């Protein structure tokens, strides 16, 4: 057995209003609507990690192009918060979020 073993994979539909941008670098450039994709589902992979009693699960956004295969992305939530994989987030506010999403549509 390697350090981890895949136990299961599940895919659940995403609620409307989640978008991601994979054109995000360490400087947290401004998110551009044309670079966003709507999150259609969430892929949940559950692993058994060698030496751990409890399994570990990871959640990955899925867009029209498939699963996001990079750790560098920004997630725009329905409440106007932009969240990054490292746990940091910024609030762009509801009005700015609506303008950003309207620009995409």
TrEMBL record:
Protein name according to UniProt: Uncharacterized protein
Organismal lineage: Bacteria, Pseudomonadati, Pseudomonadota, Alphaproteobacteria, Sphingomonadales
């Amino acid at each position: 057995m390697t350090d981890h073993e895949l136990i299961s994979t599940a895919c659940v539909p995403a609620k409307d209003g989640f978008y991601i941008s994979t054109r995000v670098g360490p400087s947290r450039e401004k998110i551009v609507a044309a670079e966003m994709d709507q999150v259609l589902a969430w892929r949940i992979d559950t692993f058994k990690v060698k030496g751990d009693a409890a399994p570990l699960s990871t959640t990955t956004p899925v867009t029209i192009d498939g699963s996001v295969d990079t750790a560098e992305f920004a997630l725009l939530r329905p409440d106007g918060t932009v969240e990054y994989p490292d746990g940091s987030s910024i609030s762009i506010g509801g009005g700015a979020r609506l303008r950003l999403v309207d620009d995409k549509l």
